[in-house]
Amino acid sequence: MVTSVSCTSATFCVAAGDYLDLASNAQALVSTWNGTSWTDQEVGAALNTHGNAGLYGVSCTSTTFCVAAGSYSDSASHSQALVSTWNGTSWTDQEVGAALNAGGNAVLDGVSCVKGALCVTGATTKTAPVDRPSSAP
Predict the structure, then answer these.
(1) What is the distance of C-alpha 109 from the center of its chain?
(2) Total domain count for the chain?
(3) Separation of alpha carbons 98 and 112, rounded Å
């Protein structure tokens, strides 16, 4: 399920969201448009040890800089904030604020980048487990 799209031109767009893998686990997904075709790539897989990841926002300022934001489930089944950054070649995943998220219910709901690498995100934390909708099989 695509939840966010960002384009810098007619020949460069990034769509972000999630999909269900063969084990019915939600995995975070980005898909990049080059003007001709889409290329899909899973992000956050190494962090998503409990199988409930998704991206809820993406923002690009150029073909060499994008940020996607969302969440993943850690080994304790806690929802942790996730940021993945595009450098024009590959995505780099980073957990965000895990040390502050003792209850394990953080989600980055969106991201906006305005110039270069200047970005802001919006987050929610809850006192109950986060159950984000994921793609239907």
Answers:
(1) 9
(2) 1
(3) 21
Q: Tens of pLDDT along 77-126?
A: 888 999 999 999 999 999 887 777 777 788 888 899 988 778 888 776 65
Which of 51, 47, 68 minimizes the C-alpha distance to 113? 68
pLDDT band at 53 (very low <50, low <70, confident <90, very high): very high
Residue count (the chain): 137
Residue 133 forms part of a structural domain: no
Q: Which residues contact 73 (CB under 8 A, 6 or more apart)?
A: 48, 49, 50, 51, 52, 53, 79, 80
Tell me the residue range of the domain where 41 lies: 2-125
Is 130 among the domain residues? Answer: no
Q: What's this model's pTM, rounded to 2 decimal places? A: 0.85
What are the structure tokens assigned to 88, written together? 């024009």
Assigned domain for 135 exists: no
